[in-house]
């Protein structure tokens, strides 16, 4: 199944993150599809822990310079790119001083979730969508990994609904056991600014509730971890969306 354009949107990927199943799985999937002759791109946040020098990230000037308005505030979008070490596979990093410079991912040193995790997810999702359009590269398959990426299909099917750019792309959502956290209660107003309302997740906005919500906006849901926690497993079993049990990396192209 070569010659497909496959977009991986993820919050983790080895070697930028280590010791997590998601990071390892995304690395193996992307490399397998790349080595089979597909046109593969990966997008992820440029978290502060990712060393620009070590991984040779550099800014892509022609893609940077856009502003994304979050809750009536202009936030500059910076795009950086690197090749996966030892491979000819490009990884694009969504960056912004306000949202991604800090060294921790989603929780401070005391274990409290960051107040702006919701804004960071919105910025990431819209940043990926706008950058793909600017690249003039239309994916056949979009594979989502990590809770922040779950905002992408919600935006594609609401805010960008009249935009035909992604109309033929099939969206795959992988589910992982991620640490849950409450999102800012004002996320309702921030999404309303983008004409998004009526989401069930807004009744109790958490990382997990948005992942569960996004199942309604994709073409296929697959288990990224073999055994999901109780809430995710229940949502997986109850979703009307086409779904697949856990697949090893060698079988992933069957899904595509």
UniProtKB/TrEMBL annotation:
Superkingdom of the source species: Bacteria
Domain Starch synthase catalytic: 5-194
Keywords: Glycosyltransferase, Transferase
Gene3D superfamilies assigned: Glycogen Phosphorylase B
Substrates-to-products reaction catalysed: [(1->4)-alpha-D-glucosyl](n) + ADP-alpha-D-glucose = [(1->4)-alpha-D-glucosyl](n+1) + ADP + H(+)
Database matches in InterPro entries: Starch_synth_cat_dom
GO molecular function, one term: alpha-1,4-glucan glucosyltransferase (ADP-glucose donor) activity
One Pfam assignment: Glyco_transf_5
Documented EC number(s): 2.4.1.21
PANTHER family: ALPHA AMYLASE DOMAIN-CONTAINING PROTEIN, GRANULE-BOUND STARCH SYNTHASE 1, CHLOROPLASTIC/AMYLOPLASTIC
Protein name: starch synthase
Species this chain originates from: Chryseobacterium flavum
């Amino acid at each position: 199944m070569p010659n497909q354009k496959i977009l991986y949107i993820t919050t983790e990927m080895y070697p930028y993150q280590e010791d997590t199943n998601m990071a390892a799985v995304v690395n193996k999937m992307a490399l397998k599809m790349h080595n089979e002759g597909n046109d593969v791109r990966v997008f992820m946040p440029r978290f502060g822990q990712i060393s620009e020098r070590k991984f040779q990230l550099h800014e892509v000037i022609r893609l940077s310079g856009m502003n994304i308005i979050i809750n009536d505030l202009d936030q500059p979008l910076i795009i950086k790119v690197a090749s996966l070490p030892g491979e000819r596979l490009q990884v694009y990093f969504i960056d912004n001083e306000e949202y991604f410079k800090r060294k921790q991912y989603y929780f401070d040193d005391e274990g409290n979730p960051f107040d702006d995790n919701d804004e960071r997810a919105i910025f990431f999702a819209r940043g990926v969508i706008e950058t793909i359009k600017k690249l003039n590269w239309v994916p056949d398959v979009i594979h989502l990994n990590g809770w922040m990426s779950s905002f992408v299909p919600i935006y594609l099917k609401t805010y960008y609904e009249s935009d035909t750019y992604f109309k033929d792309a099939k969206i795959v959502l992988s589910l992982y056991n991620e640490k849950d956290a409450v999102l800012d209660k004002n996320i309702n107003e921030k999404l309303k600014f983008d004409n998004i309302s009526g989401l069930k997740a807004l009744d109790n906005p958490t990382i997990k509730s948005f992942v569960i919500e996004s199942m309604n906006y994709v073409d296929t849901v697959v288990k990224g971890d073999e055994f999901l926690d109780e809430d995710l497993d229940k949502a997986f079993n109850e979703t009307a969306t086409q779904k697949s049990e856990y697949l090893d990396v060698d079988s992933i192209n069957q899904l595509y």
